[in-house]
Structure formats: structure tokens, C-alpha cells
């Protein structure tokens, strides 16, 4: 089981008490798409993980958001996805709600996402652009801690209002949104792959992959990592986890521990740039979507996908050739036996001739 933990830190490095007014909605997209190869090559896949975080009820005292990952990464493995979210059509599609993007001249790292639906917003929503100076990565014993630092706060006082249920003395809050990608994910970072052992033929052409992720569970992490994580940080309370697995329509068969919330074919044109330029050759990508709205914050799914195993195929071919050779030898042996028996039968069935006796005169 892999664990992703989401934490926050207040300014001045003081460990905060759990604040019930601060929670987070997590969006995780696990991508696995085939890379175009020659027909004689084993099919290869590119995997990456997209993580979006909406921290609800943020005030200016929040200094950073940290995500603890169960594998090692470097700064070069992190890519900010705000450039895609700035596409109003794209963000409206992934958020299932129409938005207009407004820049903030005084704080260029922030963008206001203004809803175009006729709904009263409890708090304004701001997109935060992650730059090199605002991200930090530290190694843990069993993974890495990726930190997004709030170098500034949105200066848009007309939009940052108090929540309707807050007192006039309460701090003004807003919702903070950022999204990033972990590129170059290997098939061992979050997955466990196995050969399909109960099917002699299919095991040469397919594999099964299992992904088991739990969110905000620090009970099973290393003790030294636990101390480092909780020394200045507090676990974010989760309000919802939206998890999606995106795979090729020609490869994947997917089953999970939760009922699917949604399943859809992605628009290749809309998602083309987002898919890192991978050519799908006209094949569609399918997004399998699960929602988790209460503890345990856990998602498990298993997929069966195309994976030619040339060593196994060669072994099968050699076995077939050997069996064919043995069958041919046995057939030839049987033919010789029948031929020998037939000759004996002919000899035994032939009439016996008496030798001519000579008369003595």
C-alpha cells in the first residue's frame, strides 16, 4: 500500500493545532498511456501522476503546503500545471463548472477563478502558480516531501470576504488551488505488476497492474520520517478525494474497490497538449473516476493491459517446436512398427510351397 500525506504549516514555524475550518479537496490523476513503438517491440508505457489541491479556508498565516510521497523524486520531476489550468475551457471541463480567469497585477503568481454560474461563492478561489523558488524537495527515509511555499498571498481585497457564518472579527479566508505533475513515474513507484499466471496463453501477451493508495495515514511510516513530518506540520483535513485512472481504450480492463463515480472518453484535441504530446493513433483515452468522501481515504484498482513478453513467447514457441518434433518422431516410429507388423503378417499369410522330390530311376 502506498500513502500520500497532505500537510500544512503556519508562519513562524509554530506547529498549529488542527484547525477544523481548514480542509482540502484532493484531485489525483494517474496516467498510463502506451508509447508508439515498432510492432516487434514490447509495448512500453509512460506513467505520470497529476495532483491538484484545493485548500479551503486559507488565511494569510499559511506558510506552506507539503505532500509526502512514498517514492524518491527530484526538482526536475515536478512540473507546474497552471499553464493548462489557465485555459478556461480546460479548467471548466476538469472542475465541472464554468470559470473565467482573472489576473491579479499586484500578485502575478495568483489568478482569480471566477465562477460564471449563478451561484453565490462562499469564498473566492485563487490559482497559485508554482515557480522554482516556491517549491522544495527533501528526502525522507521511505520517500520524499514536496513543499509548495506561499511566497505571497493574493492581493485582491475586494474579493477576499469573510465567510457568511464567520464573525466580523474572524480572519478573511479564501480557497487556494494549485496543480502539479510528477513526471517519469516508473511501474514500481505506485504499482505492483504481475504476470497473469492462471492463463497459459494470455500471460505471454498481458500483465496485471495493481495500485493501492491511501491518503493521510501516517501510522505506518518510518518513525524518523514521522518526527520530521509532524515537527512543524499538521495533517490537512480532507473533505473529498477525486481519483482518476486514465488509460488507452485498446489496452485496459479496470476493476476497483469502489463503485465508479464516472467513466468517460477524453476529447483528444482538448487533452492533446496535456498528454505530453503522446500520439494515440486515433485511439481514445478512457478516464475511470472514483470519489472518496469519508475515511478511510483509500483507492484500490487492478488493470489488465497489453504487454508482449518475448522471452515467454520464445519459450512457448520452443515448446511447440519440441512437441512437434517429438510428435513427428513418434509418428515415424509408429509407422515403422506398423510396417514391420504388416511385413510379418504377409510372411505368415503366404502359402507354403513343398519342395519338388526327385525320382530315382
Structural class by helix and strand composition: alpha+beta
Number of helices: 5
Unreliably modeled segments? none
Apparent shape: elongated
Gyration radius over CA: 33 Å
Mean pLDDT over all positions? 80
How many individual β-strands?
A: 19
Q: Please trace the helix and strand order, writing H or E for each element.
A: EEEEEHHEEEEEEEEHEEEEHEEH
Tell me roughly what share of residues is in helical segments: 10-25%
**Main sheet, how many strands, which sense, barrel?**
10 strands, mixed
Oligomer: single chain
**What percentage of amino acids are in beta strands?**
35-45%
Span between N and C termini? 114 Å
What does this structure look like?
With 361 residues, the chain is α+β, with helices and mostly antiparallel strands. Helix content is 18%, strand content 39%. The chain has 5 helices and 19 strands. The protein has helices spanning 82-85, 88-95, 223-230, 268-271, 310-349; strands at residues 2-10, 23-35, 44-58, 62-69, 78-80, 99-103, 110-115, 125-128, 135-140, 143-149, 174-185, 191-195, 206-215, 234-235, 237-248, 253-256, 262-265, 285-292, 298-306. Strands 2, 3, 5, 6, 7, 8, 11, 15, 17 and 18 form a 10-stranded mixed sheet that branches. Strands 1, 4, 9, 10, 12, 13, 14, 16 and 19 form a 9-stranded mixed sheet that branches. The chain is elongated. The mean pLDDT is 80.
Name the descriptors:
361 residues, 5 helices, alpha+beta
Sum this structure up briefly.
With 361 residues, this protein is α+β, with helices and mostly antiparallel strands. It has helices spanning 82-85, 88-95, 223-230, 268-271, 310-349; strands at 2-10, 23-35, 44-58, 62-69, 78-80, 99-103, 110-115, 125-128, 135-140, 143-149, 174-185, 191-195, 206-215, 234-235, 237-248, 253-256, 262-265, 285-292, 298-306. The protein has five helices and 19 strands.
Amino acid at each position: 500500500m502506498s500513502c500520500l500525506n497532505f500537510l500544512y504549516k503556519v508562519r513562524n514555524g509554530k506547529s498549529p493545532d488542527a484547525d477544523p475550518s481548514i480542509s482540502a479537496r484532493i484531485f489525483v490523476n494517474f496516467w498510463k498511456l502506451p508509447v508508439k513503438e515498432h510492432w516487434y517491440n514490447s509495448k512500453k508505457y509512460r506513467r505520470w501522476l497529476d495532483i491538484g489541491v484545493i485548500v479551503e479556508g486559507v488565511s494569510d498565516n499559511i506558510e506552506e503546503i507539503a505532500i509526502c510521497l512514498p517514492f524518491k523524486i527530484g526538482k526536475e520531476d515536478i512540473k507546474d500545471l497552471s499553464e493548462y489550468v489557465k485555459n478556461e475551457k480546460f479548467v471548466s471541463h476538469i472542475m465541472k463548472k464554468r470559470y473565467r480567469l482573472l489576473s491579479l497585477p499586484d500578485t502575478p503568481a495568483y489568478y482569480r477563478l471566477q465562477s460564471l454560474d449563478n451561484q453565490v461563492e462562499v469564498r473566492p478561489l485563487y490559482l497559485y502558480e508554482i515557480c522554482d523558488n516556491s517549491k522544495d524537495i527533501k528526502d525522507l527515509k521511505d520517500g520524499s516531501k514536496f513543499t509548495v511555499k506561499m511566497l505571497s498571498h493574493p492581493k485582491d481585497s475586494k474579493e477576499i470576504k469573510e465567510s457568511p457564518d464567520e464573525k466580523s472579527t474572524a480572519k478573511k479566508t479564501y480557497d487556494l488551488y494549485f496543480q502539479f505533475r510528477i513526471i517519469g513515474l516508473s511501474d514500481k513507484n505506485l504499482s505492483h505488476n504481475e504476470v497473469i499466471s492462471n492463463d497459459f496463453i494470455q500471460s505471454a501477451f498481458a500483465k496485471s497492474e495493481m495500485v493501492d493508495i491511501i491518503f493521510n495515514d501516517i501510522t505506518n511510516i518510518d518513525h524518523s520520517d514521522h518526527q520530521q513530518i509532524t515537527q512543524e506540520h499538521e495533517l490537512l483535513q480532507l473533505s473529498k478525494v477525486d481519483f482518476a485512472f486514465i488509460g488507452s481504450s485498446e489496452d485496459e480492463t479496470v476493476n476497483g474497490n469502489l463503485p465508479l463515480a464516472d467513466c468517460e472518453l477524453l476529447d483528444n484535441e482538448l487533452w492533446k497538449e496535456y498528454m505530453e504530446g503522446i500520439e494515440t493513433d486515433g485511439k481514445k483515452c478512457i478516464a475511470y473516476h472514483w470519489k472518496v468522501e469519508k475515511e478511510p481515504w483509500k483507492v484500490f484498482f487492478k488493470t489488465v493491459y497489453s504487454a508482449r513478453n518475448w522471452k515467454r513467447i520464445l519459450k512457448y514457441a520452443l515448446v511447440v517446436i519440441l512437441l512437434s518434433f517429438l510428435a513427428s518422431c513418434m509418428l515415424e516410429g509408429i509407422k515403422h512398427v506398423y510396417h514391420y507388423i504388416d511385413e510379418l503378417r504377409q510372411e505368415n499369410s503366404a502359402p507354403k510351397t513343398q519342395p519338388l522330390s526327385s525320382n530315382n530311376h
